[in-house]
TrEMBL record:
One Gene Ontology term of the molecular function aspect: structural constituent of myelin sheath
Source organism: Labrus bergylta
The protein's name in its UniProt record: Myelin and lymphocyte protein
Subcellular location, record wording: Membrane
Top-level taxonomic group: Eukaryota
Length: 163
C-alpha cells in the first residue's frame, strides 16, 4: 500500500507562502524577533530567567529560519519531514510558553516595583518605567509567538495525519 506522506505531503518553493500552516513562518519571524529585540534592549535583571527567554527566542528564530529555507528550497522531500515539522513546532510552542510565563511573572514583579517608586521627577523612575513598558511589549509579542507556534503545530499535525 502506497503512502502519500512522501513528496506531495509538504509544500516547497513558493507554495509555502500560501499553504496552511506554512504561512505562519513570516509572523513567527516577526514576533519571535520582536521578543528577542525587546528583551535584549532591556535592562536584564534578574539574569537567569531572562537568559532563558533570550535562549528561547534566539533558538526558535534561528531554527525557524533554517526550517523556512529547508521548505523553501525543497529539502523536505523525505517521509520523515511531516513528523519532524510537528515535533519542532510543538517543542517551540512549549519553549515559548515557558518563556512567556517567566517573562509575565517578571513583568508583574517589575510593575509592583515601579508602582512603589516615588513618581516625582526622578531619573530612576523614568528608567524603571521605560524598562517596564519594554517588558509589557515583550510579553505581548511572546504571547503572539506562542500562539503562532501552537497553531503551526496543530495545523502541521492535521496535515501529517491527513497525508
Amino acid at each position: 500500500m502506497a503512502s502519500n506522506t512522501g513528496a506531495d505531503a509538504l509544500p516547497s518553493g513558493g507554495r509555502i507562502f500560501v499553504s496552511i500552516p506554512d504561512i505562519f513562518y513570516i509572523p513567527e519571524f516577526v514576533f519571535g524577533g520582536l521578543v528577542w529585540m525587546l528583551v535584549a534592549s532591556n535592562r536584564v535583571i534578574p539574569e537567569n530567567p531572562l537568559g532563558w527567554v533570550m535562549f528561547v527566542s534566539v533558538f526558535c528564530f534561528v531554527l525557524t529560519t533554517l526550517w523556512f529555507f529547508i521548505f523553501l528550497f525543497g529539502g523536505n522531500r523525505s517521509s520523515i519531514w511531516p513528523s519532524l515539522d510537528v515535533g519542532f513546532h510543538f517543542v517551540a510552542a512549549v519553549f515559548y510558553l515557558s518563556a512567556l510565563v517567566i517573562l509575565a511573572f517578571l513583568t508583574v514583579s517589575k510593575g509592583n516595583f515601579v508602582s512603589a517608586i516615588d513618581t516625582t521627577p526622578n531619573p530612576a523612575f523614568a528608567e524603571s518605567l521605560k524598562n517596564y513598558r519594554l517588558d509589557i511589549a515583550a510579553v505581548v509579542m511572546c504571547s503572539f509567538a506562542t500562539l503562532l507556534y501552537f497553531l503551526h503545530a496543530i495545523f502541521s499535525a492535521i496535515r501529517w495525519k491527513s497525508a
